[in-house]
Design a protein that fits this description.
Elements (H helix, E strand, L loop, with lengths): L3 H9 L3 H8 L3 H8 L7 H11 L3 H5 L5
Helix pairs in contact: 2-3, 2-4
Length: 65
């Protein structure tokens, strides 16, 4: 199942490595965010959202059922 973070990254045409590099996050840590194994701190979430051209709320808020 895809999550909003992965969907936004794929829509941007960027790889995990590119987003990680742009945001100053280790690639392994970025992967943990994308796989739902970790939640980024607020400052990192903001940088990721900016790199993907979206909002923190869209990327990390629970989806409605």
């Amino acid at each position: 199942m895809k999550n909003a973070l992965r969907e936004a990254r794929e829509a941007s045409g960027k790889t995990q490595a590119e987003v990680a590099r742009e945001t100053g996050v280790a690639e392994v840590m970025y992967q943990r965010y994308e796989y739902g194994l970790a939640i980024p701190r607020a400052d990192r979430a903001l940088r990721i959202a900016k790199a993907l051209g979206t909002t923190v709320e869209r990327l990390f808020s629970p989806r409605e059922l």
